[in-house]
Every structure is written in structure tokens, then in C-alpha cells.
Amino acid sequence: MAGVRECVRDGRECGGVKAAGRSVRGGLRDRLAASDPGLLRLTAGLRTVGAVALTLAVLAAAGFDVTHMVAGAMSAMVSTFAIRERQRGAQAVTLAVGLPVALVSVSLGAVLSERVVVGDLFFVVLIFCAVYGRRFGDRGTALGLIGFQVYFLSLFVGASTGTLPGLWAALAVAFACSALVRFAVVPVTPAGLLQRLRQAFRARLAQLVSAHLALLDAGPEDADKALADVREGNARLHETALMIQSRLEEGTPDESTARLVQRRIADAEIAAERLGLLLLSARSAQRADTLTLHLPGAPAPEVGRLPGPDDATALLRRDLLALRALVVRTGTGGTAVAQLRNRLLGYRDEENLPPASPAVRDVFRGIGETARAVMGLRVALEGPQDESDDSPATARSREELEAEDAAIDAGEEAEAAEQPKGLRRPTTRAAVQVSVGSALAIVGGELLSTNRWYWAVLTCWIVFINTASTGEILVKGYRRLLGTVFGVVAGILLAALVGRHTWTAFALVLLLIFAMFYTAPLSYTLMSFFVTAMLGLLYTLLHTYSWEVLVLRVEETALGAACGVFAAALVLPVRTDRRTSELLVTVLERLAEVTEAAVGQLSGGPAGDLLDKARALDQALGDLRSATQPLTHPVTPLRARRTTARYVVALLETCAYHARSLAATAELLPTHPSIAADPRLRGAAGRTVRNIVTIADRVADEEVTAAVDTGPSIASLL
What was the pLDDT predicted at 422? Predict the structure, then answer.
């Protein structure tokens, strides 16, 4: 028993104690959860492959030919990925309405296939309506996507009025199979998805603690890599926290539970990020700048051995191992977990800190606060825990958490943002742009090929999806062209390998479809690669494959991307500079709101909905980060602008981190024994809020000449 206690004390696994061990199966599950939060990519891939496979099986059993099987497979794919609603009832309604939309679309495609001018004009009108439909939410987006893709499908398989009955049957089978797989074979409930996201958060939190361990042990030559791993761990943890935030409303039984989970997720994220900063400061000759944790590529500060007694590093390593074990064992109980928790929570009291330098003692305090956040997360996610093994420090932490939980209220409803109207509305502007670009793509595409001009239109359509500026469209078009070129090479090799073996080709198509949906959120280039490789196999199945066809695919893709960029640049353009400036103003406004509300509460003012304000700041910052991708892309020739954009985003991420910490501290005010309101803080911190507002005004209007105030630090003013 003494050996078991020693193993638990050191935070290591004891193979002879089943209750404390983690199976290989559990470790693989955690790694999968961390790499694919919520298993969203895996679910999307399995659903689509399942729907396509079931459709092919039914159509083959019914005696349909290869052309109708290809049409059914593509329809099943479209009807699966187009639907994005979160509630199952809404998904069922959209799927039911989508079938008649698909039948009308394929019928018009077949009827108009012999009327070139009328067909082209209708295609442009359809594209406009499909993009404009995004203003009506997820259902409008899905129905527009189904209408466009099925019309494209009719062109791809060469639909005619004589083949319509078979195509109608294939589409009906595809939608039915998609519904069966969605609701019965691979079902996803909001509560189940949220549970998987929580598991992913814990797994990524454990990975971040592992990165802290590597930073603790890193030598001077490994410091940059260790710091980069900590940066990546912070970013991945924050990404998962935002995903959980977006799913709380549907996945929790009531608003109170949602706010509790939101609070505990925020606590754990802030505590883990602060722990990394404290550890970096302890290893540096001078206190580390918070910006170091957020600026990609920034060199690590010069690191050396930890100051203080020689056993400080060994103690920190032991306790970081124990903290990681506490995180990964969140779903289990027992004496082993209780002993780990009690020891780490003891570091919240000064008398329990080991003898070391002030910087190292701060790291031990950080470990204690992170352990408290992990315990709070466990209580929020799993309910009341066994308190029989609590130490006095643990009991006190538990009382603090219970008091905080009781103080959480429903908060206030967010005000609806004023939406632009007319051509300023994003959906209207995008619809006009993509219609003009598609018209150009039709003309140019038919000059390249009178039979397969629609590939240019498809590319023009796709580069406008989820983009909002000319720069974003340019980057997306470049990535699609790059993926297409490499996909053509893969398609040639696969077509040569498959030959005339129909079912081998269909099996490879299923594999490529899964890879396409699994990699889509990670890399648009990879997704384009798998799409093009799959098309090579489909052409083989339709007996229309040739080297010339795949080369034409590249040419049409380049033409479509060029038409999309041309339309975005000349028709109601949104310049990248203008969009980033608008989003920068939004981020600064959100930052000012969070800071002012938190300072007000810490000054004795009324309680507000601080965490929701902090998450609104995070969402605005995420939008800005996406909008700056054209400026930070590796191929951009403007190196100075790339460096500036990365630096500004890193600065704002640092500000957002401090704002989240300030908001979390302010929400502790009613219950935490060591935090008290101080009316002097409002005046001392008012300069900070005014400066943020001044910067936002100057970004929004270059005519503003107000200066940024400087003065003594807040600490000196207090």
C-alpha cells in the first residue's frame, strides 16, 4: 500500500491499481477527442459516406444503371452536407422541403439543357437566389445549396427529359437514405455533441499541461519549440471553449446550467493559460511578456534553470504530472484522485508553498488555481462529488465554488445588432457579385468547352462561400486551384488503377468522400485535392475519362477562380483593408465593453453579464483573425504588412486574455474571500477604457486626432 501511495504522490500511473490506470482504449479516445472536438469531422465523414453507400446499395439492388447511381450518390452527398441546423426537427423539415427543390432543379436542368441561352440565364438567376437565400438563415442556405448543386448534377450526368423519371427516383432514394443515416445510423443530439465537446476540452487541457511539462524541461535549444507547443495548446483549448459556448443553448436543459458550464470552462481556460505564463516567467531571467504567448514565431525569452533550491524543478515536474493526471481522470473518482487534488489545492494557501524563489512559488500557486478550476469543471459537468476524502483546503475551495454557483444568474439578453440594408447587406452584395462572376464563367467556360463549362461556374460559386472580402476570395481561389492540380495527378493514377472495375471505383469514391469531409475544416487545399481525385473516378464510371478531361478541369477551375476574383474586385467590392479595419473597430469596441463592465463591477457597481461580453469579444477577434488571412498568407508579397497584421492580432489576443481574466475576477467578487470592491479602481482604470475607445475612433475615422493618454500605472494610483 505504501508503494501505491508513493506512486499516486508522484502523479504517475500505477499499473497494478485498476482504478487509477488508464486503458489504451481510453487514451486513444482522448487523443481522437482532442484532434477532432465533438467528433464533428468524423461524424460528417461517416454520415456522408453512409448515405452514399446506402444509396448505391439500394439503387444497385433496384437495377439502376451506373449513370443513375452516380446521380444518386452525388445527391446523397449534397442532401447530407447541405443541412446545418442543430435541432433534429428543423433538420427533418429542411430535408423534406429539400427533396421537391431538388426535383424541380433537376427537371429544369434537363428541360433547359437543349436551350443554351435560356438555360444559362436561368443558371445565373438560380445562383443569385441561392446566395441571396443565406439571409434567411440555415434553412435558406441549405435549400439554395441543394438547388444549385442538383442543377449542376443534371449538367454533370447529361440529364434529358427522357431520363427524368429515373433521376427523380434516384433523388428520392438519396434523400431517404440521407434521412435514415442522419436520424438512425449516425444520430447526433445537441446534448450528446456538447458532451463530446466537453471531453475534447479536457483532452486538450491535458495536452496543454503536457506542453507546460515540456517547457519546464526544455533546454535553450528547445525553448522555441516548447513555447510554440504551448501557444498551439492555448489556441486549441480556446477554440474548443468557443465551440462549447456556441452549443450551450441547445445542449443544456436550462439557462442556469448553460451559464454554470460556461463559467467553469472559462475558469479552466484562464487558469491554464496563466499557468503557462507563470512558468515561462519563472524560467526567464526577466518577467515574460504576455505577448510572447500570442505572437506566432516570436522567439522564446532566454531560459535557464529555475531559481531557488535544486529540488524545485523536480517538485514542479511532479505536480504538473499530478495536475495532468487530475485532468485526464476527471471522469473517475477514488482515493488516488482525491489525494492528488488535495495536495494541489493546498498550494492556494501560503503556508503550503514549498521554499523557493517568488517566481517559482507563483507557479505553484498557479498549479493550485488550475486544480481548483479543474475541480469546478468536474462538478459542473458531473454533478456533486464524494467529499469524504476532502482536506481542509479542498473543502474551502468547494465552498467557494458552491457560493459562486449560487450567485450565477440568467443574465440579460443581448441586443440585436443593426443589420445593413440594400446592397450593403452582405448576402445581397455576395449574390450580385457571384451572379456577375458566374455569368463571366459561363461565357469563358463555354469558350473552353461547350460540354463541361459548368466547372468554371462551380469554382466561381465555391470561392464566394464563407468569404467576405476580395483578399479572402483570392486566397480561396488559389487554394482550390492548387488542390485541383494535385488532384488531377491523383485522379490519373486512380483511374489507371481502377480500370473498368465499377465497384472498386465506387469503394474508392467512398474513401475519398470521407477524406474530403474529414479534412474540409482543416485545409481547403486538401479538400479540393480529394474532390478532384474523386471526380476522376466518377468520369471513369461514366466512361468519359480522359487526360484531356482532367486538364480541362484545371483550366475551368483557374477560369472560375479568376472570374470570382474579378467580380469581387470590381462589383460592390469589399477591400481587405476596409474589412479588417471594420472588424478591428468591432474588436476594440468589445474590448472596451468588457473592460468597462469588469472595472465597474470591481469598483462596486452592479453585476453584469461579463462572460457573455468576453465571449462576444472572442467571436469578434476570431472574425478579425479570419479576415487577416490574406495578409498573413505565406505567399503574400507584402512581408511588412504580414508582420504588422500578425503583431496586431497577437496584441489583441493578449488584450482579450487579460480582459477574460478581469471578467472572471470580477464575477468572483460576491463570493471570493480575498477579493473586495474598491471604488478607486474606476478612476484609476478609466484611462485604459478611454484609450481603447480613442484607438477605435481613430481606426474608424482617420480625421479623429484625439491623443492616447499616458500616466502612472494603476497600481501606483491605488
Answer: 58
Adjacent-strand bridge partners of 303: 284
User: CA–CA separation, 186 vs 42, rounded Å?
Assistant: 10
Query: What are residue 284's phi and psi, to 5 degrees?
Result: -100, 155
Alpha helix stretches (DSSP H) within 21-115: 24-35, 40-61, 66-81, 88-111
Q: pLDDT (tens digit, 9 = 90+) per residue, 22-48?
A: 455 666 777 777 788 888 899 999 999
Can you tell me the distance from the alpha carbon of 171 to that of 74, in angstroms, rounded to the nearest whole number? Answer: 9
Per-residue b/e over 342-357, b at no fewer than 16 CB within 10 Å?
Answer: bbbbbbbeeeebeebe
CB atoms < 10 A from the CB of 522, how many?
12
Place of cell 445593413: 420
Return the HEC string of 397-466: HHHHHHHHHHHCCCCCCCCCCCCCCHHHCHHHHHHHHHHHHHHHHHHHHHHHCCCCCHHHHHHHHHHCCC
- Look at the chain and count its residues: 718
The contacts of residue 367 (CB under 8 Å, 6+ apart) are: 275, 316, 319, 320, 323, 344, 347
Task: Output phi, psi for 405, to 5 deg.
Answer: -60, -40
Which residue, 411, 368, 373, 370, is CA-closest to 265?
373
Is the separation of the CB atoms in 437 and 566 below 8 Å? yes
Distance of alpha carbon 64 from the chain centroid: 41
Amino acid making up residue 354: P
pLDDT given for residue 123 in this prediction: 93
Compute the distance between CA of residue 689 and CA of residue 708 in angstroms, rounded to an integer: 11
* Single-letter amino acid, residue 512: L
Contact 321, 374 (CB under 8 A): no
